[in-house]
Amino acid sequence: MNTESKKQRIFDRKNVFWWSQASLKKRLSHVLGYALDEYSITTQDLESNASFVKHVHHHRLTHLQTGVTLDIVEKSIRKLLGISSLESRFHREGDVLADSTHFRHPQCLGVIETPWESFIFTRFVRGKAPRMGKIATQIGQGIAEIENLSNLHLQPKNWLQRYRFWEMDFFRPWYLLRWRFNFVRYLPSLSELPADDARFHGLKERLLSLQPELNLAKARAFNSQRCFCHMDYLAKNFFSSREGFQMIDWSEVKVGRIGFDGGAYLSAIFRQEDMARFMKIRMYFLRSYLAALDERFDAQSALHNMDYFFLQNALWHFLRPKTIADYQQRGKLDLLHEKYEYLLALPSMAKG
């Protein structure tokens, strides 16, 4: 960080209360670095269902004389007990992914902190949401690149960085205690399955037996190489544009481990596709990912971590009452049974 950036950061901290009362034009002028007296601003609401997100706005700035426009996204994230969001902390780390070639990451123009919320300003991107299964090869290359670039960045140079990265680490109790990573809490949902269907008899006990395997996988993952992980590989967070694949929305970001994002991507595909289609996409993804994985990383460790994160995400999704009800309503219990059997077999497949 250069001297000017350090001064600006100090300025922001000293003026957090002032920023909470500042107008939109003042905030935009601050992050852009010039006055906006000669601009008009129009605002459109964008959808968001992320936790603690107060609003997401698309601002179009139009120069009154030339008609030149500039499009900016403003995301406001509520603070809990005055603690800033992981997304704002991630963007404050600077251009960690600026050298990316497989994914494009919209430029962050600035982050403004107030006592009650974080304002994140990024460039607005246009494009078409891709079919995530069809871009498995590009996703594999992009994830490997993120892991490589962010792992280099996460080599702390001072105690403050070490503390910041420790706070953001996936293996902190305040993240691991979330229901998503405790599938056992959802096991009672299995009582919603037809009692007379023999395929699901004893399923609760069989799934419960996965807990020791997951605990071992968690301990092994903890000691593997770290990287920033996006963790939200849904089509709404990707755009296909003339500049390439644009990746947005780091609301779920953590300091995770190599392989975690691969598990997040594959678990999203596992939700959406039948087993034959899933296995085909998985093959293309793994082939691409392993070929692009930096030689500094252990491929076997990355694959183990991928299975750990995949299993956590998939168990959470397929044990939710909403998911079970949906499969029953659509007459897809055969497919649901197939997916349970795949999840039960995954630890033994990994050992093999």
Strand proportion = 15-25%
Roughly what percent helix? Answer: 40-55%
CATH fold-type name of the largest domain: Aminoglycoside 3'-phosphotransferase, Chain: A, domain 2
Any idea how many domains? 2
Average pLDDT metric: 92
Number of strands: 10
Q: N-to-C terminal Cα separation, in Å? A: 47 Å
Overall CATH class of the largest domain: Alpha Beta
Number of helices, counting only DSSP H or I runs of 4 residues or more: 14
CATH homologous superfamily assignment of the largest domain: Aminoglycoside phosphotransferase (APH), C-terminal lobe
Strand order of the largest sheet: 1-2-3-6-5
Shape: globular
- The low-pLDDT segments are 1-11
> Largest sheet at a glance?
5 strands, antiparallel
**Helix and strand succession?**
HHHEEEHEEEHHHHHEEEEHHHHH
- Structural class based on helices, strands and sheet pairing: alpha+beta
Could you explain how this protein is built, in words?
- The chain has a 5-stranded antiparallel beta sheet with strand order 1-2-3-6-5, sandwiched between helices.
- It has 352 residues and is an alpha+beta fold.
- Residues 1-11 have low confidence and may be disordered.
- A hairpin with a 3-residue loop joins strand 5 and strand 6.
- The chain contains 14 helices and 10 strands.
- The longest helix has 21 residues, at 299-319.
- The chain folds into 2 domains: 3-123, Phosphorylase Kinase, domain 1 (2-Layer Sandwich), CATH 3.30.200.20; 132-351, Aminoglycoside 3'-phosphotransferase, Chain: A, domain 2 (Alpha-Beta Complex).
